[in-house]
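Re: export button greyed out
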Amino acid sequence: MACVIEKINEIIAPENLVYAKSPLTNDDIMHYCPGCSHGVVQRLIAEVIEEMGIQEQSIGVTPVGCSVFAYKYIDIDWQEAAHGRAPAVATAIKRLMPEKMVFSYQGDGDLAAIGTAETLHAVNRGENIVMLFINNAIYGMTGGQMAPTTLVGQVTSTTPFGRNVDINGYPLKITDLIAQLPGAAYVTRQSVHTAAAVRRAKKAIRKAFEIQRLNCGTAFVEIVATCSSGWKLSPVESNKWMEENMFPHYPLGDLKDSKRADSGLYRIKSK
Amino acid sequence: MTEEIIIAGFGGQGILSMGKILAYSGVIQDQEVAWFPSYGPEMRGGTANVTVILSDEKISSPILHQFDTVIILNQQSMTKFESAVKPVGTLLYDPNGIIHHPTRTDITILRIEAARLCVEMGNAMTFNMIVLGAFLKAKPVVKLENVKKGLEKSLPERYHKLIPLNLEALEIGQRNLEVVHTANAL
Amino acid sequence: MGELRLMKGNEVIAEAAIRCGCDGYFGYPITPQSEVMETLMTLRPWETTGMVVLQAESEIASIHMVYGGAGAGKRVMTSSSSPGISLMAEGISYLAGSELPCVIVNVQRGGPGLGTIQPSQADYNQATKGGGHGDYSLLVLAPASVQEMHDFVILGFELAFKYRNPVMILADGVIGQMMEKVTLIEQRPRWTNEQIQALSGGWATTGKTADRKKHVITSLEMDALMMEKYNLRLQAKYLQMKQDEVRYEVIDCDDAEYILVAFGSAARICQKTVQIARAKGVKVGLIRPITLFPFPDKIIAHYASNVKCFISVEFNAGQMVYDIRLAVNGVTRVEYFGRMGGVVPTPDEVEDALNQYF
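Workaround output, generated via the alternate export path:
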């Protein structure tokens, strides 16, 4: 035993350190399941805030769902919103404190089912906030029920024989809808299942925060994510399942990169 | 002094603004006032009414079952409010469009042909001011000079050029008040 | 002395909000209170005081905007009418659960359901017994005049911050639509960041600085024992309100054999009834609860042994009457008279009802 500890200490010696967690993340043990994407995304948020030096300006809004406890892990001020209402909460915080950097962090049930109205209208108003959307096609916290983004045929606890469009309708590509709205400045879909994907996702999150500084509309980042517990797959199998099933329906890449539309396009001709 | 008034007729007859001018005039001469409208979707064409109370004392209820003066400007309101005049109170009405004229003998009944007179003036918008003029002839609860000030207060600046026309309408109302029946003292 | 104006109750809400230095209003149109937002949008306070005014996509969104603003330590408010308040119930429970100060105005209309747009007091139970899920109370103020609509916005913010609790102004269509004389306060400045720090620096999300721990606004607690402890703290706060914040008006009660109990515009109608009945020699008085929570039970109990009957006069099916019965605790008779669904009783109807109990 002693020799094992000696070995570990040798490995974690400061001169061997190539990666450290952001000082904005604390030592609490994350409650996320092995293989879950939330932990990775939250680490990226912490890194971006740290690198941009905006800890004092940042206010995060967490949702209801697995990601509710994001406020435990990142050392900034947080508000925990009711289910689906994070965009409304974030709207007011930003409007009342325009100098702050405000972001919401929501899952698919929160953002694309119960909070659809709040989501679409916040973007449509072009609120100068960042919206981060974790899409794992399932309700994680409540135990694996169907989400609006659940794929056709996908088995969940409320679609035990697979999602059937005749009963449940279609998987909602809400990010594609968001990209159509004139208030959106930047809309992108990313994932965090490989090192390269993590790097791209971090770049996208950073860009979203930079856009908030420019006051030119809503920056919206979807992360296509895994839920190995909900999907009942191992973390490795989950990544594979995501690539094979999620990516064809939710293809990665930028959907919009401009700034909110000019009001002239929508103005009445005369009074 | 307390004067409890209800003005009732069609939406679009200027009932609410007539009540407002009366209320503003009361404020100018330091009275307590309450103005309570019927509200809702009946903005044009439906029935509308407004209660105006002017008093030297603090006003209790803005909701009343009886009034010192009832001003009636259509048949529906006649049907509904003739009975709401207090004994020895006053009912002022425009006979235009009235089928069933008031029959009570315990109240004073007055007429003003405001619809006809405003057409003769060439401006339908003066209708309510003719009625107001007639009312103030019968019950001088506010001074005419305060009505002028009330008009200035209640009308947006861009309509102030219409004040002389409104004052003329008030005059016409004053001159054309007809007494139908005088209440017998109890 | 402030400025004297003739204004509608709804318009006054807007004026008072701006003048007392409110930071934000978030609302959604609904009759009979749409004049609140219309007045704000016409006055454009964002150009003068910097107050934010936003028309939200729903009452749900507007109450959660209030949550966001209140969580930041700002003075924020919303207004609505009965069906809209039902939609806000979720957010109100979260505000109470997260102990956030704000002012919510309910200009009541008749229900249930879509109901009518005419005046009502049928949301008494909803307002005074929480209205959403969980054990919580709002501090509820019932204005009976346009002046009180003005005063209670200012008082509402004071109490909201004193207790870190949502305050509801429970008005109705009569008070909202009525015009009366009102004396407006002089314009007060909005709070500076320093003032917010001084007052709410211990909890508001003003941005985490190196000298303090992060602030988290939440009503979530996974540990049941911790949640119970938190609930006990809330209950202690409500008890404090009951001790310190009861407000009421007593009219002609000292020699009264009958006492009418009514709030808001019902109390105005009852005042007239008292005048009419007193003129006929009937010894009748009026107690007007101004705070509906905390309820003025002590003053009612005080008169209980002297009177033959209390009559609760309400624009609903009889809701406050139960609080009066609790206060009276069987000492004397407690009856109810009211009209429902948007019908407002006249002073003589109340007098007729009173006569039944001689």
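Chain A has one domain: 30-258. The button fix ships in the next patch.
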